[in-house]
Amino acid sequence: MSPKLKTLLDYGPLVVFLAVFVLYRNETVTLWGQDYPGLILATLVFVPLTVAANWILWARTGTLSVMQLVTLAVVVVFGGLTIWLNDPRFIKMKPTLIYLIFAALLATGVALRRNWLAAAMGEALPLSPEGWRILTTRLIWFCLGLAALNETIWRTQSDTTWVLFKTVGLILLTLGFFAANAPLFARHTTEDSNSDAG
């Protein structure tokens, strides 16, 4: 799959979600006899687009990662509840649940001495076992921090602030996390040793 298509499938639904919310955040739209505020209308668009993006990804690659499947399930369930009950709290809680699930999965892998993060990212990021252990521990705490931050923002800030946090803030924080771990990657990379062996 081309990088452009992969990026489109990964971020396209999120960009459309943000665009629809910005366009309708101060309006109420009536569909099927029900009034929907902008945030729920954006969710109504986001859920099927996310399903379609994952279907295309599966059709093109023949596989979906555990993280992609978990995210898809949570989007469908919590997005569906948001639309069905006309209650934005469910879509706002979705990132919290996703990050808590990721943290729990990673912690379970550590407890079982299974390197699940390496299995998911090993091809893109060649690290030693010690490097993966450190990164996994840091990522567990990072996910827990994002879950707590999401709960704080959606409970105390406006819908606009939360949507910007969800669509832009979380991406920037994730990029910042991996950038901050660049020294770890440099210290524990196995790329040089593999090249020397070859």
Automatic annotation (TrEMBL):
It is found in: Cell inner membrane. GO terms for cellular component: plasma membrane. It holds the Pfam family IspA. The chain crosses the membrane at residues 6-24, 36-58, 64-84, 96-112, 162-186. The keyword Transmembrane helix applies. It is a multi-pass membrane protein. Keywords: Cell inner membrane, Cell membrane, Membrane, Transmembrane, Transmembrane helix. InterPro entries: YciB (IPR006008). Belongs to the YciB family. HAMAP family: YciB. Plays a role in cell envelope biogenesis, maintenance of cell envelope integrity and membrane homeostasis. This is Inner membrane-spanning protein YciB. It comes from Paracoccus alkenifer. The gene is yciB.
